[in-house]
């Protein structure tokens, strides 16, 4: 039986670059030959979620949300738009960071859909955050002497938004790789505006847990941290703020290793992609996972 991978992402009508990481990760996975078909679908771009299953011929589909947290989009919008009428959030049996997968039948097409949890709460995302720190510092051994800030949006409307950030900050902290690890937020305490207040380390890597670079990662966060007074003039990497060298990495979702997390989600749902996972890790410079998973 043919198998397809469908990656569901938010997209944007306003930011043309919003979908770029999705296409890039899909291309990486497509090149491995792990699936008969690989498709990208979006909430705010074409092809839309509503058309998602109709873009593939395969009878068996692995549906992976390219979202950071569990919540409105992953629990309501995607299942509704893909017509997964049997869906119930309880199928994931999750506390907000432990979503697994559920196997359902699409009401209109009859396809078998393995609906996976979002990439942002998968354990392998911790590896991507560390890899992002390596990329921005150009140091494969980065850690000793460095602090690491994992930054999220945060919102009182969805408690799971903060849970994903805190989850990965805790996991990376337990590696004892960085001298300090802190979860920071844009819209709740502790705030990224005060990043230097939370670290004693002179060097701090800041990694935003966002899928794509956009308004928040390229304008709000750099200005809020004091990297620049005007994002249009840019900033140095590292940029010195209050006696600390801030290495700002930009959105974690732009890191090539993100393709591995998508594959890991599909593997957890039963896809035979172990060879593809190994290939992606080797090609993205992370043949040895940071977390030891």
From TrEMBL:
GO terms for biological process: cobalamin biosynthetic process. SUPFAM superfamilies: Chelatase. One of its GO terms (molecular function) is lyase activity. Transmembrane segments: none annotated. The keyword 4Fe-4S does not apply. Keywords: Cobalamin biosynthesis, Cobalt, Lyase, Metal-binding. The keyword Lipid metabolism does not apply. InterPro entries: CbiX-like, Sirohydro_Cobaltochel/CbiX. Coiled coil: none annotated. It holds the Pfam family CbiX. CDD domains: CbiX_SirB_N. NCBIfam families: PRK02395.1-1 (NF002670), PRK02395.1-3 (NF002671). This is Sirohydrochlorin cobaltochelatase. It comes from Haloarcula pellucida.
